[in-house]
Write a structure and sequence with these properties.
2 domains, 4-stranded antiparallel sheet, 3 helices, 60s Ribosomal Protein L30, Chain: A, Porin
Length: about 350
């Protein structure tokens, strides 16, 4: 498992160091994903009752492999729902001495379908987006076990056990440079399959015996690397510089100011702080009864999310005005979400001029 995690880290490290054309963002709409890596099974406990004789043993496994494919839908607020198909392969590594067999081998294959719910966390980084998730579904488990007894008798067991399964997921996504919508992923997964019972047959030189087998502790830990492609990602537009016109001498200071924000952000750039400082200084030179601070957002995201985002932007600007010497009681704060754009756009379009706060002196 340590080898798989190290390989995943070395593979994705160059992506984190290269300046990227896209930035991490919530998934909105349809996406697909795929991943592969190592699967690491804990020892399985096997209880057999065959031909009226009961026995208990453990199956040990070599490090195996896992592959997953998924299709899902993102809601633009971090929440994603997806359907997943997966495959796991592990080779049997024998069982402890005293189980009645001189040697044992075989393999186990799992084919599954899962329904997952995941959530992406915005940690303020433009390049890394961590996420967690849970899933539930169904596993079809195929096992082939061959063994040779101390008397030289060869026996085989070939059977299928089906059961419900649950999983937990933790990972990070990193945008792939210059490919809009494509992200690399690194994941850890835990998968557990319910304890199951199945009728089995033991075929040997002495004949065929029938009975029942119960499998306990089917626990899988996996480390995967993969790719995810979101279809509705809009390429980021080039930032538009906001240049305040140079005021000629003896001209009355402006009575309104515009402060612009990066997409999905409410923090201030150095240029934005300078504009707010100019507005605070101007408020001492013009006759003012109140100062109106109004926040706005573009039409990406939901209406409720944009309303909250525009309020955060307005509160950020108001707080900066207070730090620059403006009295808090003189400021009125309003938030309009995406309802009053400077530039009319279709839903989902990132328009820099609509991501703003207006400062108006009355």
């Amino acid at each position: 498992m340590k080898r798989a995690l190290l390989a995943a880290t070395l593979l994705l490290l160059p992506l984190a160091l290269v300046p990227v054309a896209a930035r991490a963002q919530p998934v909105t709409g349809l996406y697909v994903g795929a991943g592969a890596g190592g699967n690491f099974m804990t020892d399985e406990k096997i209880r057999n009752t065959i031909g009226g004789v009961s026995s208990t043993r453990k199956n040990k496994f070599y490090d195996g492999a896992v592959g997953v494919g998924s299709i899902g839908w993102g809601f633009g607020n971090g929440l994603r729902l997806e359907a997943e198909g997966d495959f796991r392969f592990d080779k049997l590594n024998g069982h402890p001495p005293g189980a009645g067999m001189a040697s044992i081998g075989g393999r186990e294959r799992k084919y599954g379908g899962m329904a997952n719910a995941l959530f992406d966390f915005d940690i303020g980084s433009p390049y890394v987006w961590p996420y967690v998730g849970v899933g539930a579904g169904y596993m079809d488990v195929h096992r082939l076990v061959t063994g040779t007894s101390s008397a030289g008798i060869v026996g085989t067991r070939d059977y299928s056990i089906d059961g419900l399964a649950v999983q937990g997921i933790a990972g990070v996504s990193i945008p792939v440079p210059f490919v809009v919508g494509l992200s690399a992923t690194v994941e850890y997964r835990y998968l557990g399959v319910e304890d199951t019972k199945e009728s089995v047959a033991l075929v040997s030189a002495a004949g065929t015996s029938h009975g029942q087998q119960k499998v306990i502790n089917d626990h899988n830990q996996s480390a995967l690397i993969g790719l995810r492609y979101a279809f509705n990602v809009v390429p980021p537009s080039a930032p538009q510089a906001v240049v305040a016109p140079a005021a000629p001498p003896q001209v009355t200071p402006a009575r309104s100011y515009l402060v612009f924000f990066d997409w999905d952000r409410a923090d201030l750039t150095a240029r934005a702080r300078q504009i707010i400082a100019d507005a605070a200084q101007a408020s001492t030179r013009v006759q003012t009864t109140r100062i109106e601070v109004s926040g706005h957002a573009d039409r990406t995201g939901t209406a409720a999310y944009n309303q909250a985002l525009s309020m955060r932007r307005a509160e950020t600007v108001a707080g900066e005005l207070v730090r620059d010497g403006v009295g808090r009681s003189a400021i009125d704060i309003h938030a309009y979400g995406d309802t009053k754009p400077l530039v009319a756009t279709a839903p989902g379009v990132r328009e820099p001029q609509n991501r703003r706060v207006e400062i108006v002196f009355h």
